[in-house]
Amino acid sequence: MKAKILIAVIFFSGMISAQQTKTDSAKTKNIEEIKLSKKVFVKKSDRFVYDVANAPIAKGTNSFNLLQQTPMLSSTDGKVFKIMGKSSVVFYINGKRTLMDAEAITEMLKNTPSENIQKIEVVTVPGSEFQVEANEGVINIVMKKSKTNGYNGTLKMNNSQSFYNNPSSGIAFNARQDKWSFNSNFNMGTYREREKYTLTNGDSTFRNESVGTMDDPNKNYGGSINIDYEISKKQSLGFSYNVRYNKSFGSVLDMTNFENGQLANRTINQEDAQTRNHNFNLNYEIKTDTLGSKLTSNVSYLWFNRDKKSLGETFPLSNIGSYSAFQQAVPQIINNYAANIDYIKKFRNESTFAIGTSYNFTNTDSDTRQNDFDGTDFITNTNLSNHFIYKENIIGAYATYERKFSEKFSGKLGTRFEATISTGDVVGKSDIGFERNYNNLLPYATLNYAINDNHNITYSFSSRVRRPGFGQLNPSRTYFTPTNYIQNNPFMQASKNYNQEINYMYKNAFYANLSFNFAENAYSQLPLQGTMINNETGEETKFLRYIRTNYGNNKQLGLTLGMNKAWFSDIWTTNYSANFEYATISGGVTKDPTSQPIEGVTEILQPYTINVKTLNMFFQANNMVRLSAKKDWYLGVNYWLMPSREMEIGKLRTQQSLDLNIKKIMGNFTFLVEMNDILNSNIDDIRTTQANGSYNSVRSFKYGRELNINVTYNFGNQKLKKAREVKSANDAIKSRT
């Protein structure tokens, strides 16, 4: 966006004296108009910076919608963001990682006014100081700051209509008085969703098919409190508390099952689940000089508890099979204790040296119990009942050095060392357990060259470790039908990831990104088909397990071309991008490491082989049109398209979405009406075929067409500075809960 600043420069020549008053006149030079262009989207040494405070789209919306308009970012489900195809995103606020889980972050963004944001920083290859895994990218949201005493707040109400109607509301309050800063927020709402499933699997000799729906009611409550006290001009003390509660009672998965085209049975799985998450963090910061050097330290505690109980029943609809049922309880309790110390030293030659260390201890307790109905009563299934205890210690240390060698050339070097000690045991089952000790040295480098004002080029390299999520390690099952389920795997190992990128930017509006990512010993959720044979009767039961496991290597060569530009005096703002990715994925799985022998039963598995070489694409076009000269009416037209793509699990069919929105700003009120997925075409449809003729598919229709009505009211001093955001010591753990 270009800002026109009229500078009147008036020069008076000569001295006016009493004798010259009548004969001399002041000599005034002509007024000169100088047009200065504000750079809205720029490339820094290790990140892209989107200065949304000077962008017309940052008026009267929320932070989530603003991020959807940010170059290089995309969201295909309205919940999760990706950076140019990155597997996931880590959020930071004012350089400090957020303390909330994924759902709470989404609600926080949707309840934060966009006017509060100064700029958005997109880090495609994070440096050694960031606590990230694999090829995760970083989004750092920089809030506007002011030392004004006072208070402000935001009230927000939302109503969403898709298959069900879902209302929600939230309030945020900020206050500042001299050395004290305080902010808090509370959100609550209901979210009931429906999905329609079609599941198939088989080969040339048989075919299983299941069709049905899932209804999942959710009630969400969440909030946070942040308190910051400036002990002196150099020292600050901060405390933060985040809480999250989700209640999903009465979730029902209702599937009708066919065998070789014949109606077989009906499966109904009923589930009650609730999740509680509490996080405490204490932060201390001291500035050590006037250049910006500082020492920070954190101690944190995280408590996560997910309690899930379910009843699965199968009713015969023909002469095939009989009534069966099971009860399942899958609780998970996570306790994490963490601490870290970071020191940043700044020098007068515009260089920076940073060093830090961290420690994380996590204890996960998952006592899965499954009881099967034997015709009279429910009897404990000892094979599928597992009390799994996982303990993990991670010791980390990093060092980075950043230097601006000239106005054109800058660079940053760093390395991160991580030592991981972990143990996993199933109580009473000595054959299910492990102990792993491994160390990783993770180098990082970035070089930035500003050729001139219009051209900038950057090269970046990093390596990272990707560890399995705690829930993925718990050897429990999630059932679709009695013979079609997800199987977790405690024997999964961490993978090693190497990332390289070359970025080019032209006139702060057009960009190109060439990247190469290599994952060694990668893991995913893969389909494994097999047959269980009763040795006494000869009866065969076909099954399909989606097992989480390490499979092999994954290489991705990507090219992203994009543009972010305003036209016609900022009336029309565009954000277009196209992503091309050539992927080679190789490996497979030949066995289920969680399978335990059952007396009198023989299990035969069909190996699943991955040999993928594919070109994947993604296109996105975001448009914002100002409809009035008063800048109080706006129209948004957004569209994205993802053609069919090959993945480890199979081929995902084409997905697309057309979204429209219109907003009206009336003083402190903002009214926003959104229509998402107008074409009702955002459908998950994954199909897999193996060389031996076996196949399986999962089709999930989520009723994505949705009407949202939002009303936001801002009160108080909107320029008030928020409490200092601080980094929690257990940030790296939260994404794995």
UniProtKB/TrEMBL annotation:
Q: Protein name, please?
A: TonB-dependent receptor
Keywords (A to Z) from UniProt? Cell outer membrane, Membrane, Receptor, Signal
Main localization, broad class: membrane
What top-level branch of life does the organism fall under? Bacteria
Q: Where is the signal peptide?
A: 1-18
Ranges for domain Outer membrane protein beta-barrel: 287-713
Q: What is the lineage of its organism?
A: Bacteria, Pseudomonadati, Bacteroidota, Flavobacteriia, Flavobacteriales
As for subcellular location, the record says: Cell outer membrane
Q: Does the record carry Zinc as a key word?
A: no
The UniProt entry, under Pfam families, shows:
OMP_b-brl_3 (PF14905)
* InterPro entries, per the entry: Beta-barrel_TonB_sf, OMP_b-brl_3
- Asked if the record carries the keyword Secreted, the reply is no
One GO cellular component from the entry?
cell outer membrane
